[in-house]
Design goal:
Elements: E1 18-24, E2 31-33, E3 42-47, E4 53-55, E5 60-67
Antiparallel strand pairs: 1-5, 2-4, 3-5
Length: 70
């Protein structure tokens, strides 16, 4: 479980907070990540490589998630 900082709704706009998560293939076979879905108020704003991505054993993919409630 991760927490994001408090976000003020309304008033002056401020940059939405982000967090980075790492997905690591700990298996012995290739791991293919076809897509990562968004569920409001969270969105995937960046990945370290374009999707679909195939990770070999011990390779990682970094995902940046933005928290932007309305």
């Amino acid at each position: 479980s991760q927490t994001f900082p408090d976000v003020v709704i309304g008033g002056c706009p401020a940059p939405a907070p982000t967090k980075q998560y790492t997905i690591k293939n700990v298996g012995d076979d290739c791991l293919t990540i076809s897509a990562i879905g968004n569920v409001a108020p969270f969105t995937v704003s960046a990945t370290s490589q374009p999707l679909p991505a195939t990770l070999a054993k011990n390779q990682t993919l970094t995902v940046t998630v933005t928290f932007a409630p309305t």
